[in-house]
């Protein structure tokens, strides 16, 4: 029993309530504004009583709870608070795997001699978050990540749940299958059709049946339903930038062709960002001239992104402003990286559209390979 999962309670909303006493004890939602068809990023527990929840259109939230105070998302602030929370974790173990701004796994196996058992450390962390940051967190402790995460979710908010190995099966049995890692809506629906609603019922299914029905995934369901999970806590490997460049066979003087290349590079870089669950706040254009002189120029993005569109447009602006063709090499690099949840808080209509299209294309690419589809302007080039 050495894995701790910590998850902040109503994170964005709690930070706002902490910083403005007038908001304490009242329903608050943080997210996009209703006029621009924004959605709820999160709601305070007071607002949740009215049914307000994450990813719901803000307009719907206001219908459910007319007294709702709506606040815009202040990522900059939450990121700072998140860093302070992670710093507290770091004072107990270097084995920390942040999952998002407000949650992380800690492996405290090596630090028990120094700080005491996982329970003692978990309690200390919860107390320090309260005292030093005036925020509440829920803590789950278990023999592995699967159990620790379910435990932290078990008695939110301000929960503290410890599941020793010999209690794992009893703990899991009554939980709905939808709580379990790796069970999405589709798997849940298909389990539901055969009358399987709880993890206990899932456990009763023969392994051969599960593998027949779900393939490789069936084996995972078999193991998880028994509380077995061997995934290690993987400490953050800090990625500072994601980039891609191309050296041309011959020097290129045609701006149109350079722009097309930028688009291709932007598509690839954006895809890598999305795969790594990262968003970028700045675009760096790299140009190498025939005499090998190297020039880099940077533009900050108004909003962190993982979409090809904004990355391409920033790179193309830099190209128009600074590039004197012919060119030997072009590169696009995204910097100022931050992990962020994939949710549309964009107020910009064009970005909302691009995000939807991108998600659909990613699905196709996952299935049929990277080349199945290309942006329209790239196809044009192929046809030419
Ligand atoms: P969560 O930990 O899922 O939610 P929470 O901390 O607000 O509430 P809980 O007490 O249930 O843990 O997510 C952390 C933050 O991530 C949340 O405060 C806002 C953001 N977020 C989104 O932007 N969109 C989403 O769909 C979700 C679920 C969260
Ligand atoms: Mg949370």
Characterization of the model:
The strands form 3 sheets. The protein has a 5-stranded mixed beta sheet with strand order 5-6-1-7-8. Strand 10 and strand 11 form a beta hairpin. It starts with a strand and ends with a helix. It has 16 helices and 12 strands. The longest helix has 21 residues, at 255-275. It folds into 3 domains: 1-152, Alpha-Beta Plaits (2-Layer Sandwich); 173-225, 5' to 3' exonuclease, C-terminal subdomain (DNA polymerase, domain 1), CATH 1.10.150.20; 242-383, Dna Ligase, domain 1, CATH 3.30.1490.100. Helices cover 43% and strands 22% of the residues. The chain is globular, with a radius of gyration of 24 Å. Helix 4 runs antiparallel to helix 6, helix 11 crosses helix 12 (216-225) and helix 13 (255-275) packs antiparallel against helix 14 (308-322). The chain has 384 residues and is of the alpha+beta class.
């Amino acid at each position: 029993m050495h894995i701790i999962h910590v998850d902040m309670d109503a994170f964005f909303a709690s930070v706002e309530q902490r910083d403005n006493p007038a908001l304490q004890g009242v329903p608050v939602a943080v997210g996009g504004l209703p006029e621009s068809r924004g959605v709820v990023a999160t709601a305070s527990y007071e607002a949740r009583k009215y049914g307000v929840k994450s990813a719901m259109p803000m307009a719907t939230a206001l219908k459910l709870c007319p007294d709702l105070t709506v606040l815009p998302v202040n990522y900059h602030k939450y990121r700072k608070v998140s860093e302070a929370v992670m710093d507290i974790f770091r004072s107990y173990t270097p084995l920390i795997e942040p999952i998002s701004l407000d949650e992380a796994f800690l492996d405290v196996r090596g630090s028990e001699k120094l700080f005491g058992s996982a329970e003692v450390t978990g309690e200390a962390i919860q107390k320090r978050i309260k005292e030093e940051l005036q925020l509440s967190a829920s803590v789950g402790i278990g023999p592995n990540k699967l159990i620790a995460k379910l435990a932290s979710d078990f008695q939110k908010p301000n929960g503290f749940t410890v599941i020793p190995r010999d209690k794992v099966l009893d703990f899991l049995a009554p939980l709905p299958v939808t709580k379990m890692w790796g069970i999405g809506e589709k798997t849940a629906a298909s389990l539901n059709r055969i009358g399987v609603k709880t993890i206990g019922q899932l456990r009763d299914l023969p392994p051969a049946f599960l593998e027949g029905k779900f393939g490789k995934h069936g084996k995972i369901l078999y193991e998880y339903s028994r509380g077995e999970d061997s995934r290690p806590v993987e400490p953050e490997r800090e990625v500072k930038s994601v980039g891609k460049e191309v050296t041309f066979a011959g020097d290129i003087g045609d701006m149109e062709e350079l722009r097309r290349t930028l688009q291709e590079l932007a598509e690839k870089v954006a895809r890598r960002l999305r795969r790594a669950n990262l968003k970028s706040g700045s675009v760096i254009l790299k140009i190498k001239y025939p005499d090998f002189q190297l020039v880099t120029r940077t533009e900050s993005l108004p909003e962190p992104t993982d979409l090809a569109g904004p990355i391409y447009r920033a790179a193309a602006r830099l190209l128009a402003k600074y590039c004197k063709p012919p060119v030997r090499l072009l590169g696009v690099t995204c910097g100022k990286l931050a992990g962020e949840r994939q949710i549309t808080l964009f107020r910009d209509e064009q970005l909302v559209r691009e995000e939807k299209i991108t998600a659909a294309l990613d699905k196709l690419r996952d299935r049929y390979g990277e080349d199945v589809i290309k942006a329209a302007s790239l196809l044009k080039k192929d046809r030419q």
